[in-house]
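Submission sheet (multi-component)
Chains listed below:
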Amino acid sequence: MATLHGIGIPSRMLIDGLPGDQLSVLDRAVQYGDGLFETIRLAAGYPCQWQRHMDRLILGAERLGIEMPDTALLAAEAAEVTWGQHDGILKLILSRGEGGRGYAPPSPAITRRMLLTYPLAANHGQQWRDGVTVRYCQTPVSINPVLAGIKHLNRLDSVLARAEWHDPAIAEGLMFAATGELVGGTMTNVFVWDGRCLLTPPLDRGGIAGTVRGLTLELAARLGIDCLVTRLDRAALDQARGLFLTNSIIGVWPVRELSGRRFDLTHLPWTLLDRLYSAACTAG
Amino acid sequence: MATLHGIGIPSRMLIDGLPGDQLSVLDRAVQYGDGLFETIRLAAGYPCQWQRHMDRLILGAERLGIEMPDTALLAAEAAEVTWGQHDGILKLILSRGEGGRGYAPPSPAITRRMLLTYPLAANHGQQWRDGVTVRYCQTPVSINPVLAGIKHLNRLDSVLARAEWHDPAIAEGLMFAATGELVGGTMTNVFVWDGRCLLTPPLDRGGIAGTVRGLTLELAARLGIDCLVTRLDRAALDQARGLFLTNSIIGVWPVRELSGRRFDLTHLPWTLLDRLYSAACTAG
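Outcome: structure written.
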C-alpha cells in the first residue's frame, strides 16, 4: 500500500466475504476485464439507491452471462464492509472468477465478489454548490451495442479520456462517439437544458446508463418537465442554455463553464436539481 | 486452484519478478482492464517472434500512456519463468499498476509485470494439418480507433463472441463491426484468398494487429503474392476461394468449413502457408 497514489485509498476490503485485498492473476477481471462494477454513495451509514444499483448489476450480469450472486448476500457484505462508516463510497466489483487460458468462459464459473469502501473527497459537495468546469475530450467512446449501457470493467476509453487533462480546476470531460455524437462524461451522464426541455443522449451504442440518470428521467416526468432522449452533437451543446452532469457519488453537478463558454446557473431547472441532489444521496 | 476450469492451467507464474499468483484488487487491470498482454509461443525452449511481440507491446504502452518496462528485464523474466519448458505458451500481462479510485491514471504509476506459462493444447498441430471449422458470430467488435490494433485488456467483445458456441468441433468465430465489416476472429486474424490475391481487413477501428498477421504480409510480399488490406463484408467472404486464420500460438489454420460452406484446401497458397507456419513457430 506504500506505493499507492490517487484520489482515494480504500478503508476496508472484502473479497468473496473475507477481509483481504488480493486475488488470483487468473481472475478474468485481470485477464479480460470480464466483469461488472457499481460505485455506490454511502449516506447516514446506508448505501444510496441500492435497488437501482442492483437492477443495473442484474442487467449487466445477464448481458455478460455472469451468474449474479444473491442480492441479499451482497447487501449483507455491503453492511459488513461499511459498518461504522457514516459517509463515503462503496465500490462493488463482480468478476466471472478464475479461468484457464482463452476467451471461452470457464464452465462452471464461480462469480467473484469484491467490495471496497472509500472516503468521500475532501471537497465533496462544493461543486454541487458552485458548479463545475468541463472540457471536451478527444478520446472517442468505444462503440458496441451489446456492451452499451452496462457498467462493465472494459473502461479504457474513459481512462484515456480522463488522462487528457491534469488541471484540477477541470472536473469532467465530455466524450463523443467517433461519429461525433455525444455519449457522456468520462464518469457522468449529461443533461442539456434548452430553456423548456431536457435533452440527454441515448446509450444504445456506448456509455453507461447511470443510476442518477434514471432518477433524473423519473423525477423530471413527475415534475412535468419534458425530457427527450435524443442524439446530440457539438452544435446541440453550443445551443444549450444550461447543462448538468449526474453520477451516483456526486449526485448532480451544474456546469458553470464548458470549454471556455460560461453558463448562467440560474437558468437551470432548480426544482428538479434540488430534488435530484437529495434523492441521489438518500438511502433506499 | 481446485476450482479452476478451462483449457489450461498455468505451469509457473511470476509477478513483478517474484513467484506467485496473487495481486491487489486495486490493480488497474482488475478495476478497468487498464493494461496490455501478449500471448507468445514457446518452441525449442525459446519464445517465438519475441521482437514482434515486444514491438506491439511498446506500441500499446505508448498508446495507453503506460510506462514500458525494459524489454531486457521482460526477456530475463521470460527466460526464468519458461526455464526447462520446451514447448508451450508464455502469457505476459502488463498493467498500469495500483491506483486510487477514479479513471485518472495514478502519478507516478508503477507498471506491473505478470508472466504465466501454459502447456500447449493436447491436439495442437492437428488443426494445421486438417483445417478448421469456423462460424459467424453475432457479437459485434467494439469500435474505437484509439484502441484499435493494440492488445489491451478490454476484451469483453471477444469473450461474448466466444461464448456464442460450445461445440468443440468449431474452432473459431468471425466477428464483424456493427456496420457489417469483417474485423477478425475472436482470437485470430483472417486472410481471404480469391485465387490470385490475399485480402485482409484493416484494423483501424477495432481488432488486434496479430504478430503472425504482420509476418503474413511480409512473407507474401517476399513471395510476390499480392495482399490487399481492404474492408471486407459477408459478401466478400461468400466469394472467397479459400480462407486462413493466423495467431501466435496456432501459427496458421486453413479454414475447411465456414458456416456450412466447405472449402477445397488445395486452392490455398501453400507455399506461403508452409513458410508462415514454420516462421511463426521459430524462436527469434
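Remark: The longest helix of chain B spans residues 50-64.
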